[in-house]
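Morning F.,

Quick status update on the modeling queue. The single chain you submitted on Monday has been processed. Sequence for confirmation:
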Amino acid sequence: MPLPIEELQAAGLYDPANEDGAERLALIRWLEGLGFGLAEMRVADERGGLSAIAGDHRIVPGERMSRAEAIRRSGLETEEFDRYSTAFGFVPIAGAPIDEIGYTPEEVAALTGASQFSAMFTPAEAVGMVRVIGSSLARIAEAAVSLFLVDIEDPHLSAGESELALAHKVYEATGLLDGLLARLDPILRRHVMQAVERTRQASVGVERRQYRYAVGFVDLVGFTELSSTMAVHDLTNFIRDFEAQTYDLVLRAGARVVKLIGDEVMFVTADVDAACRAAAALMAGFSSANERVVPRGGIAFGDVVVRGGDYYGPVVNLASRLVDEAVPEEVLVTEDVQRAAIATEFEAAGRRMVKGFPAPVTVYSLACPAGPPPAPG
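Structure tokens below.
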């Protein structure tokens, strides 16, 4: 039986005198049909999210357990449970008990499964792996929410559509999560295989596990000034296009994007010529994208430390510092890059005192990159 109008009014959920009263009542009746009660709707409305409550519950369905109950069900030791929970990045969510994170049965099962890493790896490395998974999934989640806000919610609000229509859109969008991980399984397996092959190609020592990569950085001079003058919508589109172009150009050149740091891209490859192709492609692509920003870059080659999907060591630091030494539309490379390249031309650029390095560094300027990589197949 539908909740009486009087109860809805007393709860502050419905005001028949409001011009949007009919739309609000339609939303309430729809939520009732999904099983939401008066108390749940009132709390959601107080938080300004009545139209999102159905989607929120679809995202994370099920009961929210206390930490004590979750630990009991997991069978893990308290310290181990807390380590994995923190590594995954769990924080309190709506519906959780007061002062609790609020674990669902499915999350407890995931924590228990994550503990299996410790059967193969050391405890510290196992937690590190879980931390990588948690941070990667967090980035996917942030990207998904941003996409929804920009492409769906903002246009909806601008058009003045009803709360019920927005609630339907939220509910439908969250439904895309259902079964998502199962569909991504083959993609993950491919990326693992590609990582295995990259590692084999870059490996220079079996006993000590040394890896040799060309590491490149390219940034955009003038981006800070440009972004300060752009409207939010224009800046959002610029960043979207920057990311898309970055990943496409680097991949086609035969390298891999490690990360984007503001207006700077970091990429790696075991093939020095591929690194030069990637840098040249980024320089050409970004130079033509916007006349108010100008790219510059740096590439170094040598042994690096590979950890958590990222790369560390003096070679990485040097490549990053060379960007600061380059003039706009220039890519500076180290002598190791110049020696290892087979099909790339360079011009001598002298010796530079690079911040963080005690001795002068001999550098070259990228002149003519190698041709395109061989077609796959």
